[in-house]
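Illustration 12: Ribosomal silencing factor RsfS.
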Amino acid sequence: MEGNEVLTAEERAVKCAAFALDKKALDVKIFSIGKISSIADYLVLASGRSDKQVQAIAESVKVGLKPWDRPIDTEGVDEGRWIVMDYGDIIVHVFQEEVRAIYNLDELWGRAGQVAIPEELLWDKPAREA
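Figure caption equivalent — predicted structure in token form:
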């Protein structure tokens, strides 16, 4: 790999979220699923409003993570409705909003703990309480 630093799976999952957020992804979540599933350690979910935005989000993750990791497989890029990127220990799902609502992986994986996304990465920061 090009990067000299070695990142943990959690650090790479946070980077996936950051690269998605760079393209204004919506409702980005990182689930720590390793204790309840053998498919991966982390699941990153993100949404876009159009096929072009979903494709741009996935490309941002792929290019941004390249110094540390490359996907084993990627599905759904041509359609841009639901793109799945498999990094082995991390699976990234990028959906159009309505597709995400139909499959509701947020609820399916809801019992898994979530990894906090650092506030400085968020472009759509929640309003602070007065």
